[in-house]
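okkk here we go again. third time trying to get the magnesium ion bound version out, last two times i messed up the smiles copy paste (missing a bracket lol). double checked this time i swear
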Amino acid sequence: MNPASAPGSADLSDTSRQLELLVNSVTDYAIYMLDPHGVIRTWNRGGERIKGYQASEVIGTHFSRFYTAEEIDAGLPALNLSIAAANGRYAGEGWRLRKDGTQLRASVVIDPIFDGDQLIGYAKVTRDITERYEAEQRLQAAQHALMQAQKMEAIGKLTLGLAHDFNNLLTIVMNSLDLISTRVPDPRVQQLTDTAMRAAERGTLLTRQLLTFGRGNALVSEQLDVNALLRDSRELLNRSVGDTVAVSFDLGDGLPIVELDKNQFEAAVLNLVCNSRDAMPNGGSITISTRLCRARKPSESESPEEDFLSVEVRDTGEGIPYENQSRVFEPFFTTKEVGRGSGLGLSQVFGFAMQSGGFALLESQPGQGTSVRMLLPVENRAGK
Ligand SMILES: Nc1ncnc2c1ncn2[C@@H]1O[C@H](COP(=O)(O)OP(=O)(O)O)[C@@H](O)[C@H]1O
Ligand SMILES: [Mg+2]
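finally!!
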């Protein structure tokens, strides 16, 4: 069906002209032909529009120029052609490069063209699906954030109920221990009641942390200069991390005074710094930075962006495996051995940020480090 093989036929040459016009007027698809080695032979307006190259710039060059450097290193362009030749078609999706160096998400089909048994080239159709892809990614992220928020909400409720019950039980235990120790003057009994009392006090401390996570603790809000607070806690933080870890500050200028619970804020920063220290047994560095930023609460993807004060603790530690990243804020989630971790540090951070009217964000690259950010509202509406 090669039009050139029917010389003199006006109809056929018209057909080929029509075909050319058709291909060229398609602007949503890059439609072009490659020779058997992958050298570009034709180009259309869609190609110009999607990839940004004029025909004269690409014809005669190898089509691998549209692939990213990593894909070229991985031999993907040649592989895709050989798949097309062997299977009769290659269809796939991936990132491709535009002339200006930006990337587009491309849906790609490659069909081999045979003349009898002989492979004479490839027809390649590329569609720009960047917008759709990004919309899907946004939707997935929003769904994920919503699920995560619902999960934390459910765990929060459960925790709150448990913590209240335990608090009541511990109060009874402590009152009874008090009575025993006053009524039985035997020093051996005293020793036992002291031990039991310490354990009960520890239990109370734990339930208090749980209450924070479950947002059952009333916050005591006051006007705070976060930078000044952080500067004041420098020594305490340095002492907590030891000699092998360096703590540095990167505090933004002109930050507003915010309304927060001072004790909870300090506890949260200390929790984060201690986590970073634990993640760097061989030393490393921690950067605490403050900034003003605009963001949208993850659970409210539809609402407009608001101003937040971001307080970030970033480390160069071991990072968090991807499979743990959605769980670390849960109370009692810990990867540390018994006695070293309670699993309540990040849940305090999460609970405090939420209850203050903000949220907490985690970013971690296994092997590279971790950043936890508390986004605290500039105009505090906590509890209102
Ligand atoms: N900066 C960090 N680097 C690496 N892992 C971290 C970091 N912060 C938290 N984690 C992980 O999250 C888990 C939960 O942290 P947390 O709630 O503070 O509890 P804990 O420190 O008692 O284990 C930790 O056990 C650890 O696995
Ligand atoms: Mg911790």
